[in-house]
Queue: 3 jobs
Job 1
Amino acid sequence: MGRRNTPRNEGAVVMTEKNWNIEILVAEDEVNTTARAVLSTTTGEEHVGVGAARRNPADEPVAEIGDEIAVGRALADLAEHLLSQGARDVARLSGHAEQTRAW
């Protein structure tokens, strides 16, 4: 019996590249900053995270700090939303109860 030569990529998984975009909207006044992080998928689905920051009246007004905090919180909220949605989808497709924070 001879050896069978097989191509190196036989059985390889082909990766598909996707481009998801996040638009971040920031609104502020003298004390409050709010941010919305809107993720748009290639299927047209949108996921939204929100965040807010409030300047202590005793602090110097530095708009960038409020922006950073509000945007960071919006992105963290978006991440939590995506992870929770993924866990619900896995539970639904597997027929098992949803796990709490498996990541």
Note: Residues 63-94 form the longest helix (32 residues).
Job 2
Amino acid sequence: MLIVELRKIFIRNLKYYRKQKGFRQIDLALEINKGYNYINSIENEKYFPSPETIEQIASVLEIEPMQLFNREEPQKSKLNENFEKRLNNIENQLKKEIVSKIETIFKSS
């Protein structure tokens, strides 16, 4: 049971970090000098990579190999967190400006 669970965790994390880097399956496969459907075979539980390949994958994804086996859901990257914060700040600022404009219109009428 533990092996099956670790494989599922690995696959979930692989998909997450691959997408975070903007790689399609074929892109990542080519980066690690594997066949075009190699990552697809891993993500569809047909194949499991060797420790050396796991290290290559992690290197390309710019993460530590153990992050691929982390049971907790992968955290959003700092870049995404910063983007979301900035977007929320802009949204709040726009709301304030809109409310202010509406108040000005009602006061003048």
Note: The helical segments are 2-20, 25-31, 38-43, 51-61, 78-108.
Job 3
Amino acid sequence: MQALLLTLLLSWPADLPYKPVPQDAKLKHAPAFVDSAKLGKEGKQPVLLIEGSLPSSCHHLRLDLTGKPDSKKRIAVKAYSVADPKAMCGQMLQPFSVKVPVKAKKGTYTVVINEQAMGTIEIP
């Protein structure tokens, strides 16, 4: 899923644990397996709910939200994981569920995660 400017903006509070950080360059990058993405609400704030699995409990989710929605109103997100290459972990999928705050104008948007269309969300 990318930080969206213009009509849609996925905002990053500073303390989100899945925001990419410079230290990630020293870690091993691996896939994040995304099963679903849908729009929900937390209070009055719309949020994008993303659920899936990481390769192990040593992996940490990263969501890269950089760029603008395209002319077809697609929200593109890159989901991946990072882990310490020296860490010893059992290779067992670790489920995740995250909420990304959405600030958007009224409209319908297609959510694309890792170049796969996950569905549409509508901001009333």
Note: The first strand starts at residue 2 and ends at 3.
